[in-house]
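User: Can you write out an input/output pair for a complex, sequences first and structure second?

Assistant: Here is one pair. Inputs:
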Amino acid sequence: MSKQATLSSFFAKP
Amino acid sequence: MLEARLPQASILKKIVESVKDLVSQANFDCSDSGISFQAMDESNIALSSFLLRADGFDPYRCDRNLSLGIKFASLSKILKCAGNDDVVIIRYMDDADILSLVFESPNNERISEFDIKLLDIDSEYLSIPDQEFECKVKMSSSEFSRICRDLMTIGASVVIDATKEGVKFSATGDDGSGSVLLKQSGSIDNEGRGVVGTSVEMVEPVSLELSLKYLNNFTKAAPLSDSVAINMSNGIPVMFQFDVGDIGYIRYFLAPQIKD
C-alpha cells in the first residue's frame, strides 16, 4: 500500500 | 497602482480555468517584474503557481509591490464575459478594495468594465528548494491529458517510470491494469502542425506513484501549451510545467505517494 505524502514535509515554511 | 494590458483575454481565461478547481482563492503578487501567484490545495498535496512576466503585457506599470486577494470563482465568472480575442486591462488603484477588469473588443467598438472585490487573504507561502531534477520528460500536453484520462478508468493512481527508453505510465485497479509507453522521439513536424514528440533527459531512472485525480486537474492547463515538462526525482514532489508562450508559465508541484 502507498500513502499520499503532503508538500509541507518537503517544502519549508519560511 | 497597477495597470497591465494583456493583448489576449484567452490567456488569462485559460490560466484561471487551470487553477480554479485546485485553489479557491489566492493572492496575486504584482511587482515591476510581473504578476505571479502560488497556492496549495486544501489537503496540502498540490501546489499551483503561475508567472506572467511584465514584458508579456503592453504596457505594464506597477509602482510598488502589491498582494491582491482574489476569489477564483468570481474571477472565472467575470472572465467568461470577455471574448477570447479581447484585450484585457487589469487595473488597481492604490488602497482600493476592488480590481478593475476592462475588456476591449478587437475593433475597439465594445468596451466592458467589471470590478471584482478583493479579499484579505493570509496565505502561507512555501519556499520551494531550487533543485536539479534527476529526470526531465517533455511530451505533448494533449497526449498527457489523454493518458491521464484513459488511466483514470483503471485506477486512482499512476506509476510514472522514466528510463532512457522513454516514459511509461501504469495504473492498476480492482478490475485490471493498463499502461502506456511513450518512446523517446525527436520532434516531428507533421505537415506544419507541430506534433510534439517525447524526450527524456536523465541522470538516473525515476519511478514515482502519483494521484490521477490531481494529474487530471493539471491537464486543464493543456490548452495553454503544446507541451508539458515533467521534472522528477525519486521520492520528492514532481513539477509539471506548461509554458504560456514566451511570457510565463503555470507550474504544479505534486507530492508523491510513498510506499508504507
